[in-house]
Backbone:
């Protein structure tokens, strides 16, 4: 599952990164290094409007919005169900009553700098959970596949700001390669070349949509152990994504290898330091750091001083 992630990029960065045409955010969110269920997060979606009351209709376009993490279906009696619907399994997302309508019509992308997973470790007959931070090794944004819903709160009139609650869930899949050594599930990541097709509300073919969900991204990810301070939702800040040595973490770590390797934290001085992800941006400062000795993940080297930011995706937006 995906129960915590980091989302520290600024609103203006996301508007450019995702080629957003319509900004529907009224107040920017603060950087959050410990996003937990029911918190507000950014979501990218493609949507139009037939107009309501005095509001004119809107053409279908890519939007940036703020939603609450934890899907509340339109038929729900209250919002409490949302805390239990933070994830939707890719294998059953088109058949579960809470998700199947949204899967067909209301898909979104949830930007993230990385996510946390916990690995069970046995030490001296005891089992403890070690958190890892998993992110793109080039510092680029992760676009989680998501679904959104709009829930009507009948206790407010139609024109009240709280009358409509926007919520979302993250689609998860089986973890691939070395990510599976840490946890058997991971968020489904949509690559930039598939963003337009995934967000297209006119694409309702279930087979086509499932094809966009496979295979799960594993190559190009990096992971390292972090402090157990992330376990408490009240803790926040860039220190949560700082790497820890095996000794600091309290024992032997797993050895993420192959496509998931020990890497540098994707932030510097509390801001997202995003490296070039393709030929459109500057090259990386140097070759990847060598993998850790077997059985351990050592602390990563500090990131370089340069703040090279990834260029926006070049995929065109299809309007309907």
Residues:
């Amino acid at each position: 599952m995906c129960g915590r992630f980091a989302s520290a990029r600024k609103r203006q960065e996301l508007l450019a990164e995702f080629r957003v045409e319509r900004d529907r955010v009224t107040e920017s969110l603060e950087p959050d290094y410990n996003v937990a269920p029911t918190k507000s997060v950014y979501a990218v979606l493609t949507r139009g409007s037939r107009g309501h009351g005095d509001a004119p209709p809107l053409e279908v376009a890519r939007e940036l919005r703020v939603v609450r993490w934890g899907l509340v279906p339109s038929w729900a009696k209250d919002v409490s169900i949302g805390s239990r619907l933070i994830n939707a399994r890719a294998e059953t997302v088109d058949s579960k009553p809470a998700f199947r309508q949204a899967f067909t019509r209301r898909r979104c992308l949830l930007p993230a700098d990385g996510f946390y997973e916990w690995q069970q470790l046995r030490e001296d007959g005891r089992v403890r959970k070690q958190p890892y931070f998993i992110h793109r090794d080039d510092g680029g944004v992760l676009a989680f596949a998501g679904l959104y819903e709009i829930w009507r709160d009948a206790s407010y009139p139609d024109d009240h700001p709280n009358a409509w609650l926007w919520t979302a869930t993250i689609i998860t899949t089986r973890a691939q390669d070395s990510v599976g050594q840490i946890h058997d599930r991971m968020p489904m990541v949509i690559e930039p070349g598939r963003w337009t097709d995934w967000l297209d509300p006119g694409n309702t073919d279930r087979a086509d949509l499932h094809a966009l969900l496979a295979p799960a991204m594993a190559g190009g990810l990096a992971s390292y152990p972090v402090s157990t301070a992330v376990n408490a939702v009240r803790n926040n800040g860039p220190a949560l994504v700082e790497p820890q040595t095996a000794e600091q973490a309290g024992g032997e770590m797993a050895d993420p290898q192959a496509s998931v390797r020990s890497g540098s934290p994707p932030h510097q001085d509390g801001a997202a330091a995003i490296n070039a992800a393709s030929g459109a941006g500057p090259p990386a400062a140097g070759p990847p750091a060598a993998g850790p000795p077997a059985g351990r993940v050592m602390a990563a080297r500090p990131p370089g001083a340069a703040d090279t930011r990834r260029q926006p995706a070049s995929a065109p937006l299809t309007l309907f």
Confidence is low (pLDDT under 50) at residues 251-264, 267-320. DSSP finds six helices and 16 strands in the chain. Residues 11-17 form the longest helix (7 residues).
